[in-house]
Amino acid sequence: MKVTVKDIQPEGLAVSFSDGAARPEDLGPQVEAIESAPRAELRLERDGELVFAQGEYTAGLVLICSRCLGPTPLSLAGEVDWTFRPLPQDAPEELRLAGEEMELSFYRDGVIDLAQALRDELGLTLPMAPLCREDCPGLCPRCGRPMTPGEDCCAKDEVDPRWAKLAQLKPK
Question: What residue ranges do the domains of the chain occupy?
């Protein structure tokens, strides 16, 4: 969803959109699938070249558990408060921002890409290491199969031959 800055009237502009073009790789490496497309309802207001966007978003995603690599459904909902300003004409390829500018987003040629801003917001809210559940035991280090809590796996049955001599020192 792209909005032209000139289209934002003095009284503001209400925008509601669904980003059906978003792909899992657009959101982050931990995203396996998108169950319900990211959706946002925003209120845009303009003050000269600055554009302020406030509203809410939702999305339904399937992440990859960082321990067992299984699917992990996640519903996201939150609020946004964005400030956009035009990208300077002489801006280098990589722009360095001061501390107070870190909350800014930029637009080019008088057009704001709200869908991209929403994708960026979702990428920042995702957990870095998602878990399917808090007590997820992960994968067996020997055979690679998903382990279940309370169940022994093949890794517990065998002693690493490099440590076999130390096992003999253990009192019985």
Answer: 2-125, 137-172
